[in-house]
Task: inverse folding
């Protein structure tokens, strides 16, 4: 139920976008809950985009992990 | 772009957890987390590290009460077209399930999105009721739909619920000694991390908002273990690529415009104050409970019993593991489920039945392959 899948916006008209989920699947998605432009990635849940994702944030995650893992274990 | 299954990192985390010599009990409230946990065998990797995790009431289908299911069944019997997500179909109610109703010729339609339900309403003359379940991840889609002027034969049976009040109820009940909480990534994408701050302060419990890749969960566990070790009770965000502290403000605004909190029961729980989403009065022309008040009077005086032996209630409060239920895998299977936790793809029992049997050891985990 709370599964959300990332996809790339390939077309947009008003609040409706066509989103490419990477495996050739194109779906119509309501983007009224986010501010998104063509070419950007969105997280889609039940036909609605609930967040815009960007590569910078993805890199941020990897940086955060590295930071946490490089700390010593508290005895 | 989003590759978060690197095996070396997983091994590093597990090694660190082992070194900590832990014996901790954590809870999460999300079916998608449970799926990742069991599907990738993380539960089996974590137990030897002294980390036990259970799913609490985080499955919208599972926590929907028998009374609410009966409301949908009554409306179907009265000739309304009921639309809902697929997982809801097989959940047994007092007088059958939506699936059995369909078998009897009543009109029940599975939809992928509320948008499909609205399109159906535009094509037909009959009343189309959307049996709306889901937490804050899903509720904004219902709210946005009601704000976009749907047809007058369309209505909502709102069973949407807020997660933070349920988390509080769990901690308040104190049946299990929860030492840390993994908060749901996609609910938090909408609500942000701030609602958990109050919980952290009040119950002095560490929380981590985590994503859904195997490494997200392992990192989440590691971050919690560190906080527990240091005696801290902060709210940390592991899922920064989707969750902002303020959440999705647009979705929150839309949700707030349409819904107001109300006290509702959750399956397995008593009434949880302010945990239900009720349509505001302004939207009563779309509220199935107002529109079909007469039809729903049938509900009065009905008695709802838990099927004999079913322990879904305790599963939902995180007190037992699925195999501890005497019906699990014997009488209760996904083909013929007795309780909702075996029906929903997000229920602990269904997930355990599907993946738990191939209790994989960590060597066989295919972190780099597979598509979610």
Result:
């Amino acid at each position: 139920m709370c599964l959300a899948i990332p996809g790339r916006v390939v077309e947009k008209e008003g609040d409706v976008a066509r989103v490419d989920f990477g495996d050739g699947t194109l779906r119509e998605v309501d983007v009224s809950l986010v501010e998104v432009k063509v070419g950007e990635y969105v997280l889609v849940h039940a036909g609605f985009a609930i967040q815009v994702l960007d590569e910078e944030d993805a890199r941020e995650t990897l940086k955060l992990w590295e930071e946490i893992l490089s700390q010593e274990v508290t005895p | 772009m989003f590759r978060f299954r690197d095996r070396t990192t997983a091994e590093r985390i597990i090694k660190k957890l082992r070194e900590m010599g832990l014996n901790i009990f954590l809870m999460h409230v999300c079916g998608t987390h449970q799926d990742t946990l069991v599907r990738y065998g993380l539960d089996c990797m974590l137990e030897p590290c002294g980390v036990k995790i259970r799913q609490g009431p985080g499955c919208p289908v599972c926590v929907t009460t028998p009374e609410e299911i009966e409301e949908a069944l009554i409306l179907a019997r009265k000739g309304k077209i009921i639309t809902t997500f697929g997982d809801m179909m097989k959940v047994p109610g007092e007088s059958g399930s939506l699936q059995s109703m369909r078998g009897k010729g009543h009109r029940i339609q599975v939809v992928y999105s509320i948008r499909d339900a609205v399109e159906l309403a535009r094509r037909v003359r009959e009343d189309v009721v959307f049996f709306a379940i889901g937490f804050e991840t899903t509720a904004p889609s219902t709210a946005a739909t009601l704000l976009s002027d749907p047809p007058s034969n369309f209505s909502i049976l709102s069973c949407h619920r807020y997660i933070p009040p349920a988390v509080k109820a769990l901690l308040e009940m104190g049946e299990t000694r929860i030492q840390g909480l993994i908060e749901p990534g996609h609910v938090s994408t909408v609500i942000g991390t701030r609602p958990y701050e109050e919980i952290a302060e009040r119950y002095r419990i560490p929380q981590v908002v985590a994503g859904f890749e195997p490494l997200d969960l392992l990192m989440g566990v590691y971050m919690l273990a560190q906080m527990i070790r240091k005696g801290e009770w902060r709210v940390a965000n592991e899922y920064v690529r989707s969750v902002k502290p303020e959440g999705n403000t647009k979705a929150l605004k839309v949700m707030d415009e349409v819904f107001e909190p109300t006290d509702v029961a959750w399956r397995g729980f008593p009434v949880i104050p302010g945990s239900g989403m009720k349509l505001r009065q302004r939207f009563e022309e779309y509220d199935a409970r107002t529109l079909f008040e007469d039809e729903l009077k049938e509900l009065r005086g009905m008695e709802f019993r838990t099927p004999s032996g079913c322990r879904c209630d305790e599963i939902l409060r995180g007190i037992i593991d699925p195999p501890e239920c005497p019906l699990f895998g014997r009488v209760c299977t996904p083909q013929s489920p007795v309780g909702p936790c075996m029906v929903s793809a997000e229920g602990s029992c269904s997930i355990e039945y599907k993946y738990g049997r191939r209790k994989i050891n960590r060597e066989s985990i295919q972190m780099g392959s597979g598509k979610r």
